[in-house]
Amino acid sequence: MKMINKGEFIYFNEEAYDVLRNYLLHQVDSIKNIFILVDEITHIHCLPVIFKKIDFLKKSNVIKIKSGEKEKNIYTCIQICKNLEKFKATRKSLILNLGGGVITDIGGFVASIFKRGIRFINIPTTLLGMVDAAIGNKTGVNLDSIKNEIGSFYVPEFLVIDTHFLKTLPNKEIFSGMAEMLKHGLIADKNFWKKMNQIQIGFIQNENECKNLIHNSVLIKQKIVNQDPKEKGLRKILNFGHTIGHALESYFMNVNNILHGIAVTMGMIYESWISCKINGLSLYDYEEIRSTLSALYPIKNKISDLEINKLLLIMEHDKKNEKNKIQFSLLKEIGKCSYNCQVPYSLIKESFLN
Ligand SMILES: NC(=O)c1ccc[n+]([C@@H]2O[C@H](COP(=O)([O-])OP(=O)(O)OC[C@H]3O[C@@H](n4cnc5c(N)ncnc54)[C@H](O)[C@@H]3O)[C@@H](O)[C@H]2O)c1
Ligand SMILES: [Zn+2]
Question: What CATH code is assigned to 2-168?
Fold first, then answer.
């Protein structure tokens, strides 16, 4: 299975390992020039799989970082650069990012700045990584609690998606990835939304179904990214659920960590409500979205007034804002999304109370 995205290729399962093996044998001059970036969990669950598939990688350099969003900062990048330096990386070196969105974001960013840019390949190991974070050429890290404030657009050589990695992924992480898949349906493909609506978390066990749904989701994101690689317009629809979602994620990062996908799901519910008020989304569609998403991820606590004000402050600093206005992507109907929508503060506040 092969897809082309302006220099970016995505390969699945066995074919992916053949492509990777060939690439490494023919495009990298020495095994010493290959660096595998892992976190402490993918080091245990995923690195042995890669070693089994491509034996000679055992001789490459492994750089291990701690796991988790807190590690996604510039200091970790500096540590990785120091390691690259220590193991004598050159401009011909290559980084294999083996992990979830945190690893592909950090590893891609390091690849973009080390010696003014070296090659990298993404091997996403979480569902969210496969359908979202590893695709689309955005790399970056957080600045304190401001999400993805430092970063670059940088294109990997290609992507390797091995759906078998999902077998060791905890359920909450599967849910987190499913949120982005549901989002892809909501913004661009009503049929895919309907399909996703019917599936349960167990779809991961069904190899064919899992591969097809992931493939479908990848195609939706790629199609959007291809039309607008640098997010000047259309690509903004991928931010549906993320204006409020990112604010929740930033706010709770310092309180009691919240998964990206869960924050985005809450964001999608609130932003669907706003869409219904000012962007023509029907009440019928809104109810369908709310009931599906809240069944998957019940929102336990109402957000307090104090928290709402703090969330608004965070949204005011969103790098996607223009002319001092918070920008939203809002649904017109299921499968259709508008971008650059301005929303009165009073309506944003009200959305949290529903
Ligand atoms: N660049 C982009 O376009 C983009 C898009 C969406 C999200 N993101 C970023 O992605 C990050 C979230 O990604 P994530 O949810 O993958 O988080 P993550 O990378 O932290 O992975 C989640 C957890 O799963 C563990 N893990 C990874 N693979 C595993 C496996 N196969 N088995 C068992 N455990 C495994 C990790 O160690 C981690 O503890 C956020 O920082 C977000 O900002 C980036
Ligand atoms: Zn997201």
Answer: 3.40.50.1970
